[in-house]
Write a structure and sequence with these properties.
The structure is a homodimer of 202-residue chains. By secondary structure, the first copy, chain A, is α/β, with parallel strands linked by helices. The first copy, chain A, is built from 8 helices and 6 strands. In chain A, helix 1 crosses helix 2.
């Protein structure tokens, strides 16, 4: 866009917006205009929220969660099972488990999964700090709650190998039919896993 | 999401992000995490760009464009045809025409189109200010470059009615085959319009 039609401030806003996931130049222009039209109710509050988040939120030194507290609120909260660590790929997975509300242990956020294509090696992930937590003692079980993708399962196996012989139980999330799911819409692998892990009615 | 897993700063960022066009709660969570991971290269610069835009950009009092200058850079720039006004629905349309680079007149941004469904009446649009500009004299032609939608064309006809008898020529953008477009993919209306407006080869 030429500078005659839009000032450098708008161009910079559009350029930065276009780097957000799911945004391209066209949707960034639309979003920038949307923000300018809602200056006091959205644009300025969002600018402040971003600045606030950027200056106050940091990665938890224990588990890798994002929070303004150090260690994070989950690591500090009492009443959780100290002997149980749930390993997740990234923070949204932690949020999803917390929304569920049924898990009452600690977490460890890897910050990604190993990927030959993207050049992500174990050293790029929070795997050494997980091993240190286990080595420090007091951990009874590590749940590898990684995504059921190739990279996720590959990373899970790597982590399991690293933790082997350290006296902790390694567990995985069960595969099966999602609650409310229709058999007709499931892939063959899920259906086969659900069959293998079938339970008695009692 | 419970406050145990994410602090109020993250929740507020996600809530505001989810109001952006094309975003929902899930994509807003992804985008917020994406921003937190690129704090210094994206989150803080974007916060500053938004704050800057929010505090410095305003709507041009003449044409309705957004700029830090008042009147805007397009209204102030010399070498443009003062007698020609191109009426557009919104600022991205102005940007699109400026990217094209072939239009050298002035603009007038309506800020939307009339819509019975959305309750947008002529009074909600910058139509009175367009009439004032024409009444002030010196305008030779008004190009109604509104979108070829029902609401766009309806608004164009309303504006044309309002300007009737004021001694200005009212023109519309030509309908036809887009440059590079394939006939097979065009709708019947466009094809019929292109046929009606066919040109001699000379």
């Amino acid at each position: 866009m030429s500078q005659r039609s839009a000032g450098p401030e708008i161009l910079r806003l559009i350029e930065l917006m276009s780097r957000l996931p799911g945004f391209g130049p066209r949707s960034a222009r639309r979003a920038a205009l949307f923000l300018l039209k809602q200056r006091d109710t959205l644009l300025l509050p969002l600018a402040e929220a971003m600045s606030d988040a950027g200056h106050r939120i940091e990665k938890c030194s224990v588990c890798g969660n994002y929070d303004t507290l150090q260690p994070c609120a989950v690591c500090q909260s009492g009443g959780r099972d100290e002997g149980l660590i749930c390993v997740v790929e990234d923070v949204p997975d932690l949020w999803a488990l917390e929304r569920g509300g049924s898990y009452k242990g600690r977490y460890h956020v890897l910050g990604g999964v190993m990927s030959a294509v993207d050049g992500v090696t174990p050293d790029d992930l929070n795997i050494p700090s997980l091993i240190s937590r286990v080595d420090a003692g007091g951990i009874r079980e590590v749940i590898l709650a990684l995504n059921a993708t190739f990279e996720g399962q590959n990373t899970a196996h790597y982590v399991a190998d690293q933790l082997a012989g350290k006296g902790v139980q390694i567990t995985y999330l069960a595969h099966g039919v999602p609650v409310g799911g229709e058999l007709d819409h499931l892939d063959d692998g899920t259906l086969a896993a659900a069959l293998r892990a079938r339970r008695s009615s009692e």
